[in-house]
Amino acid sequence: MSRAKVGLLVFWIAIKLALILQFVARVRDFTYEGF
Amino acid sequence: MIGLDSPAFWLMICALTFVTRGLQPRPGYRALVFALATGALFSLSGLALASYAGLVAVAAYGFVALRVGKGNWAVGLHAVGMSLVFVASQYATRAPFVTAGSTLGQVLPLVGLPYVYLRYLHLLVEVRGGRMQPPPALEYLAYLLPFHQLLAGPIERYPQFQKQLNAAIPPLDRDTCVLALNRITNGFVKKGVLAEILRSVLEFEFQTTGWRLWVEIDLYAIYMYLDFSGYMDIIIGAGMLIGWTPPENFNWPYFSRNIIEFWTRWHITLGDWIRDYLFMPANLWLQRGLLRNWPLLAGTICFILSMVYCGLWHRTNLQFGIWGLLHGLGIVACKYYEVALKRVLGRKRLKSYRASWLTRIAATLVTFHFVAASFLFAFHTPAQAIRILGGLL
Questions:
Q1: Burial class (CB in 10 A: 0-12, 13-18, 19+), B61
Q2: Residue B228 belongs to what H/E stretch?
Q3: Taking CA atoms, what residue in B is nearest to A17?
Q4: Closest Cα partner for B159 from B137, B193, B126, B189?
Q5: B chain contacts of residue A17, beta-carbon cutoff 8 Å
Q6: Are B379 and B223 in contact, with CB atoms under 8 Å apart?
Q7: Which of B233-243 are b and which e, b meaning 16 or more Cβ less than 10 Å from the residue's Cβ?
Q8: Do B5 and A12 count as a contact with CB atoms less than 8 A apart?
Q9: A35, B174: Cβ pair inside 8 Å?
Q10: What is the pLDDT of residues B258-293, one digit of tens each?
Q11: How far apart are CA B19 and CA A33, in angstroms?
Q12: Using CA atoms, how far apart are residues B205 and B286, in angstroms rounded to an integer?
């Protein structure tokens, strides 16, 4: 993969990670089922 | 205690992925590391080690059964034996004497048994058919109980697994890491964010009527897709990191133009298994014997039986039996429609009918709504499902 494509993908992964962490942080019980 | 399918459970899968990768096992030892990883998952999560012991006992029975007896009767006997174990465990989980604190309550439910069961039947048929050698014990155990594919498959075939197991571990280079992390985060967004938002906002109690109910039923189908395909994304990404990538299980299933195509794009490995080990042999047997002169009738019976089996495999209860039956009837309706169209339109006009965009869009919409409505029958009693659908009018 070209460096530009890798850079874009890393940026996209970072956005998704931020979204996931933001969402998981709102979950009161971290061990609940039905994630 | 960590709940199954909780964020912490999935973090543990990711941690085990990195540990397994970090151990860099040589081909000879990889099966051992994978088998130990499954044991570690059971002991660290809410799944009791006793449950792991139960699954290993089932696998051990299967291991012996692969080598005992000769001829077709042995295949049949062992297939029935394993099916009985599967059905018994499904019922025993719901039995009143199985309480959470009891020994049986620890051993049951045998998490992942439905997938162990189908993987095993595949092995049984191939080994007994002489197309494969019986696998060595550790490889067999790693194949039947993969830590990253434990919860919901897919149903990987043994040769694909063996090929990856015996190959040199692919280097953990920049491209692999980025592609794997992209896949894993896709899965977490689908399963942990989008599906969770749909579930918490709509709650899927189907108390509304009219267009709101319509939207809720459609979104329920989308929720099911996001949850299951998100799971697949996570385990495929994890698999890329450890050099054991599971096969793809989804290919935009809601864009299928009929229910037959749907089963080649939704839970692909299950659809393939049903076709290869149930539909094809049963259809062949009927077409060469009893129903030699009625191939369409033979197909009809086999489609319906295969899909009812598929439904009962998901959960051994009436609701899932009806869900399977509906899909079977859907497939049969497609086949008969195809035959009728061929007769009415002829080959040339049928080709242009199929190529038309309008037909494609209409067929896709009908298929999607059929699938969405069928989910209601899987998770409600028939009377409840009909009452919910009545709310659409």
A1: middle
A2: helix B210-242
A3: B185
A4: B126
A5: 185
A6: no
A7: bbbbbbbbbbb
A8: no
A9: no
A10: 999 999 999 999 999 999 999 999 999 999 988 888
A11: 24
A12: 43
How far apart CA B6 and CA B48 sit, in angstroms, is 16
pLDDT at residue B249 is higher than 60? yes
Find the residue in B nearest to A33 (Cα): B6
Peptide bond into B109 cis (omega under 30): yes
ipTM of the complex: 0.83
**What number of C-beta contacts closer than 8 Å exist between A and B?**
61
Amino acid identity, position B286: L
Global pTM reads 0.89
Residues belonging to chain B: 393
Interface of B with A (CB under 8 A): 1-10, 46, 174-175, 178-179, 181-182, 185-186, 188-189, 191-193, 196, 199
Which among B248, B287, B243 is positioned nearest to B267, based on CA atoms?
Answer: B248
- Cis peptide, bond prior to residue B154, ω within 30 of zero: yes
